[in-house]
Amino acid sequence: MAAERALTFGQQLSYAVGNMGVGLLPTLIGSWAMYYFSPPPGEGLPSYIPLMVVGWVLFIGRLGEAIINPFIGYWSDRTRSKLGRRIPYIMYGTLPMTIAAVLMWFPLVHRESMINAAWVAVMMTGMCVLFAVVVAPYLSLLPELTPYNDERIRLSSIMAVFEIVGLLLAGGAAGVVIDAWKTGVPGLPAAFNGFNLSAMAVGALTLAAFYTTAFRVKEREFTPSKEVSFGFRASFGESLKNSAFPPYLFMVVAFRIGIDTVVVVIPYMVTTVMGGTELHAGFIQMGIMLAAIALFYPVTILSDRLGKKKCFLVGSLGFLVVMPLVVTIGKWPFLSPMAQGIVVFLLAAFPAATFSVLPRPLLADIIDHDEKLTTYRREAMYNGVEGLFTRSASGLAWVLSATLFYLFGNSAENPLGVLLCGPVAAVFILAGTLVFRKYPFER
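and the corresponding structure tokens:
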């Protein structure tokens, strides 16, 4: 076991820190964008985009990212440069991606307006497309850097820690900043607020994370297995012919819709059902993530003993127990609504840990199997095809949440739309779990 190492610990850290960038921007947008542009009634915040429009505006960006993902994977797999097949995309895509991500938080009109909807749609789409340019090649490095199963799981665990740090900063710490200065930052122009400040801080951290990987990680030498001769259609089709990929793909898509729907609802849940503020929402997100980090090592051990598939199914069962409990928050005969919500969300820590740690090693196994089938290393195409479906799914979570809010309410007086997000998420996760049982590899 000691000999099965391809990377030093420093090399693992240099690669894994980039995953903090993977977590930062999507978390800030997923946790706070809809709340910022279309806040719940009665919270004293201005609305910039109508409720039934904001979900679609954010979805447009995710759709652009989804469409471009397979093409980025195809181009990256066929790239030949002195820096490798992946690093150039990270190096040159990160800065414009970050600029677009920050600008979307500065609406042009300080009231509800379709001008803001158009502005956010353009900036969100630009950010998401460039996010695909950076992240698909970044994630494709993992199977290339090490061929060893235990090292992949360990590296994925370190990546998950950095991703959780990004989630803590963009979801939790941002909530603290937003609560403190949601109506303005002292000494700065009146329109500048905690949401804007959080976006700028997250942007700076994203640059630092991805550039650390870009300048400190070296790709392995070019080999004949990297000389991919498939055209785009053939490459896409061969990916779906891999018997392990469709059940994995269906699972991550279903889980993405379910989990992101709950992430979107947390600020609304805390402020309308649990009787808290944006500060409480930030702390609750931090608590979930810290609890998940504490469980990464047990997940790794359990995965070694049960195999990745069974360990993931155990985590799936946890989600299926916890998600329906969301609708009961505020209705228990004991504990305050705030305490009830904290208990429910903390129960999701172990399932969240399994979903943070295991999908990357699972996909690496699928890519190894593909090399046996095709003789080629096509990591980026697999990440691209996955991105086509998962990024669309992530965008649908906004549309789904906004629709539930519109139909059933998202205010303190009528929060049913907020509460229903949990059971609806459970339906998607159940479907993903049932299909993933057909995944062929146990270990």
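(Above: one complete record from the training split.) The chain has a mean pLDDT of 89.
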